[in-house]
Amino acid sequence: MKVVAGGVEVAEPAGAAAAAVVAGERAAKRRRVAAETGVRRNGGGGGGGVGRRERRRRVQADAAAVQRLFQACRDVFRGPGTVPKPDEVHMLRAMLDRMKPEDVGLSPDLKFFRNRDAAQGTPTITHTTIYKCPNFSMVILFLPRNAVIPLHNHPGMTVFSKLLLGSMHIKSYDWVDPDSDSSSVSSSSSSDEQLRLAKLVVDDDFTAPCDTSVLYPTTGGNMHRFTAITPCAIIDILGPPYSIEEDRDCTYYTDIPYTLHSTDNPSDLNNVEQDQGRLAWLKEIDMPRELKMCSVHYGGPPISDK
């Protein structure tokens, strides 16, 4: 059986990555239940009560962090066609900067994150949805080592990305002319292979903990590619989320060096940085056949939307 998530058709849970994530979620849930019900694992007295209280406080703190994040998202994202105000972006980014893996039931001690061996074949990317509504979604992506989420866009969306665990390489672009589909087009490409000019925004390695990144409908690197250097987890807040019905489907691209093609309108580049190393042609492609993703149930601290 298959489901559609974030514009990508994915299989139901499968593979070692999904199993590791599910196992971690179950372990986190057992810890929460033990703390909340006061279960003693080793019997005894005295110190057991102190341990239970400490675990309970930790669980409550984790739950409070993700609940506060949810409430902030509910206030900030007002639906399609809107972009959060600068002070709202600053507030939400600061909250995500403070987020820890434990706030969503994760730990660097989980087997998935300790595994440094490269997977055989194409690594499977796992994702879990913390919350989703018409205005925004909160998602965690789990990338094994060497896994790649191909270059793709976020039409009309504002996206906050926070790397919780691991290291990854991020490469992102914006259109040179975001207001037109036809300008800054290669004159040497055929009609069925139209190329559009983009400018490089980010091309760098990131290791958790690091600052939250934000992309907007036309700036901030709206089209990006993730490549996992080590097993990693990243939380994405998308507002609004992908929706085929509302014309916010995910489009994939391949990037081609700028020097391989010429432009129809050289004057379009007058206001663009003339460093050719930061320009590239993007070609729209079908969803890569090798892209493998699966969905698992979120098992971290629950959210109340009341």
TrEMBL record:
Superkingdom in the source lineage: Eukaryota
Similarity remark: Belongs to the cysteine dioxygenase family.
Region (Disordered): 33-56
EC numbers: 1.13.11.20
GO molecular function: cysteine dioxygenase activity; metal ion binding
Root EC class: oxidoreductase
PANTHER family to which the protein is assigned, alphabetical: 2-AMINOETHANETHIOL DIOXYGENASE, CYSTEINE DIOXYGENASE
InterPro entries: PCO/ADO, RmlC-like_jellyroll, RmlC_Cupin_sf
Gene Ontology biological process terms from the UniProt entry: detection of hypoxia
Record's keyword annotation contains Acyltransferase: no
Name of this chain's protein: cysteine dioxygenase
Cofactor(s) essential for the protein: Fe(2+)
One Pfam family from the record: PCO_ADO
CDD domains found in the cross-reference section: cupin_ADO
Keywords of the record: Iron, Metal-binding, Oxidoreductase
Reaction catalyzed: L-cysteine + O2 = 3-sulfino-L-alanine + H(+)
Gly residues biased stretches: 41-50
Origin species: Urochloa decumbens
